[in-house]
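The pair is quoted verbatim as follows:
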Amino acid sequence: MFYLRRDSQASLIRGRFTRTVHRGLQLYFRKLQSSSLVATSTCTLSFSVLYTLWFLWYTPAASRGPFYRKALGTTAVTAALCAYGSQAKDPVTLHRLGLIITVLALIFIALPLAQLRKVIRAKSTAALPLPAILASTGASVLWLVYGLLIRNSFIVLQKTIALALCAAQLCLFIIYPATGPSKGEKKQ
């Protein structure tokens, strides 16, 4: 059984939308030469959308307000970036969009660190989403290997930073092992 605290739930909402925007932008701006990258991005985007819908399905009706606000904000940001990318096809615009996507990816990976103060205070990592951290670690390792194979220093640098963030989060699980919910907390 999973125990989710309210602060952890808010972090999960932010993470789902950041991930969905990131995958959507990756797909949109993958007017690249590699059909396998487009297929991978399409599959990942589909899973992100399904996962987000699954989360919405199990979110109590009273708690859906933040979900809908994040969805509206995410849609607006994605539409703005897509419109910007459609205006120009020059390398400078694509480079800027690549940097934006990189920043979004690193924000997604670093989101659990927003709970750092609570983890240290409680001396427990119960508020951190271990599956999301493990998934980010695995994806970062695979992308790092890909970047090394194609000798792309931009991907290697981005994924090295991502792995450092993941390692810091995983170290928290060693330093502050997760404990069950306290007596006043609800099971979800």
